[in-house]
Amino acid sequence: MNAEILSVTGLTRIFGGLTAVRDVNMTVHAGEVVGLIGPNGAGKTTLFNMLGGSLPPSSGRIRFDGADCTGEPSHVMGQRGVSRTFQITSVFPSLSALDNVRSAAYRTTKAGWGASVFRTAAYRREEADLHRRSMETLAFCDLDHRADILADALSYGEQRRLEIAIALAAQPRLLLLDEPAAGMNPEEGQRLVEMIRRIRASGVTVLLVEHHMRVVAAVCDRLFVLDHGVKIAEGPPAQVLNDPEVIRVYLGRETVDA
Ligand SMILES: Nc1ncnc2c1ncn2[C@@H]1O[C@H](COP(=O)(O)OP(=O)(O)OP(=O)(O)O)[C@@H](O)[C@H]1O
């Protein structure tokens, strides 16, 4: 088994009188695709928000890549190598697919303000590099033929893939995907599965929240199940998806179509 990249111990988040996430322990190894599932309101998004740095935990610890990063804000988590997508699409609708990816990739470049104003050789090299990397990221997400199309004019499935491309442009080591298959038809779901496999093969660890069990079963190495903020099961999909307690609290109510 690969080294641990993410570990969460005793993670808890309280909103007023409601404990949305309660004392969760979780370990993710480098190179895994791990699914986080559970019924609506189970605490999946709250847990994701804490991992991505947009919500501080009430208690507990988060370790990423050997460092304690509990409560660090999202831009610091981003610098550490954690990147995420959102349930609601976060693309800029009036920018082309390429410019959406390029603006995310830009944050990884080194040439400063002065270099861009004076268009130094270093700046021009970096611009060319940025363009090349952005096109590679689009190609990786099957969108290079749509590079110049405004994000708004892309199909729904393409917009969801663009969102992943934007997150990948930050060159993360851990990618958090929040319901990437939501609203997708079966063909788009299958494309997504293939894309997540490519992401894993490229060396990026993936943690995803997802309700489409066909996608989850096809792509995840392991699953964690939350119910009312508590982890109730973990293990390989074949084991977890046949767990009577998981079926009782969750799968009994879900559609399995992707
Ligand atoms: N900012 C907040 N303030 C108060 N309560 C919140 C807040 N965010 C989430 N909650 C509550 O915490 C609980 C967990 O919500 P969360 O969105 O994390 O669940 P979820 O598993 O992601 O659900 P879904 O599958 O519907 O997205 C819910 O009862 C929700 O109403």
TrEMBL record:
Q: GO terms for CC? A: plasma membrane
Record GO terms (molecular function):
ATP binding; ATP hydrolysis activity
Keywords, alphabetical:
ATP-binding, Nucleotide-binding, Transport
Report the residue ranges that make up the ABC transporter domain in this protein.
Answer: 6-253
Keyword ATP-binding included in the entry's annotation: yes
Q: Does the keyword Transferase apply?
A: no
Concerning PROSITE patterns, the annotation shows: ABC_TRANSPORTER_1, ABC_TRANSPORTER_2
- Gene3D superfamilies noted in UniProt: P-loop containing nucleotide triphosphate hydrolases
Transmembrane feature ranges: none
Record's superkingdom? Bacteria
Its recorded name reads ABC transporter ATP-binding protein
Per the UniProt entry, what species is this protein from, by scientific name? Azospirillum doebereinerae
Organism lineage reads as:
Bacteria, Pseudomonadati, Pseudomonadota, Alphaproteobacteria, Rhodospirillales
